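Input chain follows. Return structure tokens only.
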Amino acid sequence: MRTALIDVGGGMRAVYGAGIYDYLMDNDLYPIDLGIGVSAGAADLATYFARQRGRVLRYFTVYPKRRQYMGLWPFLTRGTFMNLKYIYEDLSLPGCEDPFDAETFLRSSSDMVFVATNAHTGKPEYLEKSSIKIGNLTVLEATAALPVACKPIEFNGKLYYDGGISDPIPYEKAFSMGADKVIVILTKPRDFVRDPEKDRWIGNTLSRRYPEAGKAMLMRAETYNSQIRGMERYEKEGKLLVIAPDDTCGVTTLKHRDEDIMRLYDKGYKDAEKIIPFLGI
């Protein structure tokens, strides 16, 4: 049986997934053959494969307090609200304060795919596990580059934005890659319906320079809502498990308080127990 896990990210809400991964690591559970990461979920999932328990939580509780992380300072100094280079380079590279263990990640027997949106075509691209190099985590920046809040990230000669624009819940990709059972980590309640109006301003702004990516952004709500409905058939067949919080505890993509972050993390830690009966482990 080939098992897959999809982490859809969601900015600061991705701390829900951090709780899931810490539970799995605390119980020495590594049953995933294929990981597919979107946006912040990609870094979370990669850190699980790197077996760095607690590291993801630090990126939601310790470093966001620093002015280099996001906000006015990186906007004034680097022209970006979310400072991905600080997160994935200044903190995460070898010899830095909290390095990602790329060696352990690359040695893992699990496959991984990073989902990013091509800024020029507006289409999703699925970047291979080998995109991560020792000393180079640019692929994590590419999948997490939120439009308007971030500049597009250049990777292998192409410009990319957040993978959640074009393929927010890539379970079909998992099945196409041979998965028999798929776990999907959402960071909003299972019954959440995305409002297209919330994407309109960002989509229109993005369209001025990247028309196809802008179109994908304007279609994001329809894509997300359709994928939510599409999972139901696989759930009924016992092929797919959705793990989602019953509420987001006040945490949004960019907004959070420490107490809310920990409440959402704790929900993930508890909900991770659902994986055991689903996979029969």
